[in-house]
């Protein structure tokens, strides 16, 4: 497949984990990628490998996100695909024990940052008047109840509905907005979480058996769904959230 030839994609949080896998897959599909991330070393290294571009970006700073969109247009001449991927899960604690600092930090990165991305990508798409596509990275915990990560679940649920709302708003411009909701994905961060558990083997077994389809998906599995949504094969798909979860949300 080379379904994204001559397309330009901007990916926030694109230097590692899921964002890195998305950048790699979109490049395989023919796109030119721009990686927006705080991690300058990893971002530059990946951009060089993929023959793309890197811009240091703090998604909690609206001006920084706006600059990333402008940089993309400066380097590639246009923006076709925006992947709103940057995010954190924050500290785990029951709601009544959660700190206000953790709440505000997660909200700032996951929700405010995502809104800034939507705002400036949509502004560019409307200006170009050639359509465009946005894929928001959400989570299955935005679709079901999940204990001990209240700000994370709140931000992902909010972004799912923001996906729907912006899809309705901007369909008239031929701009598509969708979301991908993964289950737990085997990234370096998750592997570290497993290794740090009191019983790593038990934790891994739990993750491998929590979905009807056994096992832990890799980041490449999620990236494949993003590539589909970014392509013209999905040209009449907008406003949906695809759960890449091995059937978890079907239970």
TrEMBL record:
Listed NCBIfam families: PRK07231.1
Keyword Oxidoreductase in annotation: yes
Entry's Gene Ontology molecular function annotations: oxidoreductase activity
Descriptive protein name: Bacilysin biosynthesis oxidoreductase BacC
Keyword Oxidoreductase among record annotations: yes
Domain of life: Bacteria
Taxonomic placement: Bacteria, Pseudomonadati, Bacteroidota, Sphingobacteriia, Sphingobacteriales
UniProtKB keywords: Oxidoreductase
Family: Belongs to the short-chain dehydrogenases/reductases (SDR) family.
